[in-house]
UniProtKB/TrEMBL annotation:
Belongs to the acetokinase family. This is Acetate kinase. ATP binds at residues 14, 208-212, 283-285, 331-335. It comes from Aureibacter tunicatorum. GO terms for biological process: acetate metabolic process; acetyl-CoA biosynthetic process. The active site is at residue 148.
């Protein structure tokens, strides 16, 4: 069975085509600059050969037409016919309280995803554009929505409720939802597969560290808490997002700088995080290089970044009554050995013993990085959200 996975952004579409009998990726790529000048498609074949196709891609429907066209093209394709695609799985960022699992897409489901647009105004609209485009182009192929928020719907009410007037929660759905759910689910399950552990008996802390970053507490196979909230702004210090900040700081800045809500939102989402602290970059590699050269603000940013993750690990260990496994994933988690070392330093009280030699010897591999005697198993597990989406799609079709 072949399943196409789509991740539609505001001006981009990422795609992967899976042969589910072997879980192999037989084609993948990305379209960028949709609706802008210079739009293009980058396509990678199963043998690694790459091609770049430039064209006028004015909307998501035309973008998906390009993708389907290259998949069946004689020169670059891997399909004889589009009829070989048996299902399409879509990443959908926000499912609100309506969806606690992936779901086969119907007209009613589309309406309910549209009802969540206010909760994710930058993400859900392009997700819907991809769904509607595929519905128009391949109307007989079943589609599945896989929600970033669904995995965290097992959180108890005392973990997801904010201490604001309860009437506002009921009126607008203002609560913690959490994100990166597909990633947290994949890496936590994969870690247990690697270790031969029963997923339903483990206390796991999953650290998804990248441009966006979140930590999740997963107890007996269920998310019981996570650092992101109503939006992806809460929690960790990120590339350009502030993470946790006293709301009084924001209202103070709005008053003193005489800025409106839109400008304040841009400030904490686009101009804060390690970029705001350092004034250098949102890329941790640039920050690490600057720190090595003696830049004090870069050094401060790295210390703050590690410290925030460490605090959440401590809090979630307390919330779960212990911890069996700590996982690092995402671009920084998979490649940043110095970040992993900085986070683990000081966690010895939990029984954490990092093997420094192993930790610094690889990049983006599945690897146990703790010493054999460590009471908590430390792991790096590269995330694979697209495979998780494909698996959920297959599960629902079966």
């Amino acid at each position: 069975m072949k399943i196409l996975v789509l991740n539609c952004g505001s001006s981009s579409i990422k795609y992967q085509l899976f042969e589910m009998n072997s879980s192999e990726v037989i084609a993948k790529g990305i379209i960028e600059k949709i609706g802008l000048s210079g739009s293009f498609l980058k396509h990678t074949k199963q043998d690694g050969e790459k091609v770049k196709l430039v064209g006028d891609i004015v909307d998501h429907t035309i973008g998906i037409e390009y993708i389907l066209g290259v998949l069946v093209s004689e020169k670059h394709g891997c399909l004889k016919s589009l009829n070989e695609i048996e299902a399409v799985g879509h990443r959908v960022v926000h499912g609100g309280e309506k969806f606690n699992d992936s779901v086969i897409i119907t007209d009613k489901v589309i309406d309910e995803i549209e009802a969540c647009v206010d909760l994710a105004p930058l993400h859900n609209p392009p997700n819907l554009q991809g769904i509607n485009a595929m519905k128009s182009l391949l109307p007989d192929v079943q589609q599945v929505a896989v929600f970033d928020t669904a995995f965290h719907q097992t959180m108890p009410d005392y973990a997801y409720t904010y201490a604001i007037p309860y009437s506002l929660y009921k009126k607008y759905g203002l609560r913690r939802y959490g994100f990166h759910g597909t990633s947290h689910k994949y890496v936590s399950q994969r870690a247990c597969e690697i270790l031969g552990k029963d997923y339903k008996t483990q206390k796991i802390i999953s650290c998804h560290l990248g441009g966006g970053a979140s930590v999740a507490a997963i107890k007996n196979g269920e998310s019981i808490d996570t650092s992101m909230g109503l939006t992806p702004l809460e929690g960790m210090i990120m590339g350009t997002r502030s993470g946790d900040v006293d709301l009084g700081v924001l209202t103070f800045i709005m008053n003193k700088e005489d800025i409106d809500v839109k400008a304040a939102n841009a400030l904490v989402n686009k101009h804060s995080g390690v970029l705001g602290i350092t004034g250098i970059s949102s890329d941790m590699r640039d920050i690490e290089n600057a720190s090595a050269e003696g830049n004090e603000r870069a050094k401060l940013a790295l210390e703050m970044y590690d410290y925030r993750i460490k605090k959440y690990i401590g809090a979630y260990s307390a919330a779960m009554g212990g911890c069996d496994i700590i996982i690092f994933t995402g671009g920084v988690g998979e490649n940043g050995d110095s970040t992993r070392a900085g986070v683990c330093q000081g966690l010895e009280y939990l029984g954490v013993e990092l093997d420094s030699e192993i930790n610094s010897s690889f990049r983006a591999e599945e690897k146990v990085i703790s010493k054999p005697e460590s009471k908590v198993t430390l792991m790096v597990v590269p995330t694979n959200e697209e495979l998780m989406i494909a698996r959920d799609t297959l599960r629902l079709l079966n």
